[in-house]
Design brief:
single chain, 127 residues, alpha+beta, two-stranded antiparallel ribbon, 7 strands, 44% helix, globular
Length: 127
């Protein structure tokens, strides 16, 4: 009987863990005008796969945007790494991959940052 109660307790905790919220901060490129946050949000809606199918978000995944931050709330298993993959894919499609990279700033969020090219230019001038 004890094993049944443990299994029931695990089932309730696993349901609570399933709601995940990830954010992608695009403030630097959006403020500079080289990227559109609305287009990035649309790209994520079109490309995120649920059960092996794109465009199948339904109620399980919600994508929202506040100014330049895109938030993805998932009730189904969704890895943060998958969002990084899609972000890099979007940057490559928009030909921004040479200037921007995706960096994790917290456990639940990514940030799009510029590469530090300034340091390498100074090194070249000194040679």
């Amino acid at each position: 009987m004890g094993a049944v109660k443990k299994g029931a307790a695990k089932a309730t905790t696993s349901k609570q863990k399933r709601a995940q919220k990830f954010t992608i901060d695009c403030s630097q490129p959006v403020n500079d005008g080289i990227m559109d946050a609305a287009a990035f949000e649309k790209f994520l809606q079109d490309k995120i796969k649920v059960n092996g199918k794109t465009g199948n978000l339904g109620d399980s995944i919600a994508i929202g945007r506040e100014k330049s931050k895109v938030s993805v709330t998932a009730e189904v298993p969704l890895s943060k790494r998958y969002l990084k993959y899609l972000s890099k894919k979007y940057l490559k499609k928009q030909q921004l991959r040479d200037w921007l990279h995706v960096v994790a700033n917290t456990k639940q969020s990514y940030e799009l940052r510029y590469y530090n090219i300034h340091d390498t230019e100074q090194d070249e001038d000194e040679d």
